[in-house]
Amino acid sequence: MAISPTAEGFRSTFRQPSFALAEIAWRWVFGATAVTLCIFGFFEYLDTLRVSRWELLFLRTKQPFLVAQAIAHILRGSLYRVVMSLLLAFLLLSVLWIVAASVGRIATVRALTAYFRGMAGRVAGIRVLAGGQADVASDVPSGNFVALLRLNFLRIALAVALILGLLAADIIAGFVSTPKDPEPGLAFIIFVPLAALVFLFAWVLNWLISLAGVFAARDRYSAIDAISSAVTLCRERAGSLFAVSTWTGLAHLVAFVGATTAISMAMGFMPLLPWRLVMLVVILLTIAYFAVADWLYMARLAGYVCILEIPEALMKPAPPVRPAVPPASSLQTTIDRDELILSDVAQPVTG
Question: What is the pTM of this model?
Answer without folding.
Answer: 0.77
